[in-house]
Amino acid sequence: MSDALTTSLPADNGARRRSRRALGMAFGLTATGLVAEAIGGWWSGSLALWSDAAHMLTDSIALAIGFVACRVALRPATPAKTYGLLRMEILAALLNGVILIPVAGGIVIEAVRRYADPPEIRAGPMMAVALVGLAINCVCAVMLFRSQAGSLNVRGAFFHVVGDTLGSVGTLIAGALIAAFGWRIADPLVSVGIAGLILVGAWNLVRESTEILLEGTPAHIELLEVQEALLAVEGVKSLHDLHVWTLTSGTYSMSCHVVVEGDRARQGILESLAAVCRDRFRIEHTTIQLEETSLEHSEARVH
């Protein structure tokens, strides 16, 4: 004889709609900045400005992917996809991270070539266009900041924008050095710095999204702490087959089998276990199976 309790997934559609709106507005601004920086890079001859434009291109792609992923994630669950399309947000974050890697590599290769033979650069137009890009990136970063904490998808786009903001600052510095001292070498050096920022953001996105897709234990959760907290519930004798994973950013799931003592009130035990997961570990979706006697397992009791 056994009993089970499964709690439902939180909808949180309001947050996704706000994220989608912020991503759409940021995309429009970034696309405008991309055109301005591409023209400015051609006019001034600055690789740093071209690098910033390339980063803005990846920003635009990231924002577009994030926008579509937010829209798709709002679709309800179906019998064929019982979790809905929540994982689309994680796939979008992974794709954004992968896109950034070859972009950074291309910038470094061109920077090395220019380091050996720095071309003439018009510092005035370079700085003017970089200032426009900086203003656009700052506005986009502010719009995305509120949503990025609860969504890896939005966080990916936010990191793109923050990296590009720092790149615009670097381009302004390079332009100032060229205008004041004629240090044309500052242009490729700043470009390498921008490429480094891009790679850091790419690595973080790929690492976090891959961990979720592999259904690793969420970073804020210690599995042994979950085990001890559940064992502390009155009436629980032991537990096994404990798993905790992330469905999408901020949405966690847990399943386990719990062995109970005697004829205690099972519904009360189930509700207490679910409350511990929800209140202490922010796990809203739980599947808990109660058993009177433990099944024999050759594998480890907690996975």
Describe this structure in words.
The protein has helices at 13-44, 47-73, 88-116, 123-148, 152-181, 186-213, 223-231, 266-281, and strands at 2-6, 236-248, 251-260, 285-291. Helix 8 links the parallel strand 3 (251-260) and strand 4. It has a four-stranded mixed β-sheet. It is built from eight helices and four strands. The protein has two domains: 13-213, Alpha-lytic protease prodomain-like; 217-291, Cation efflux protein, cytoplasmic domain (Alpha-Beta Plaits, 2-Layer Sandwich). Helix 3 packs antiparallel against helix 6, helix 4 (123-148) runs antiparallel to helix 5 (152-181) and helix 5 (152-181) runs antiparallel to helix 6. The longest helix has 32 residues, at 13-44. The protein is 65% helix and 12% strand. By secondary structure, it is of the alpha+beta class. It is elongated and about 85 Å long.
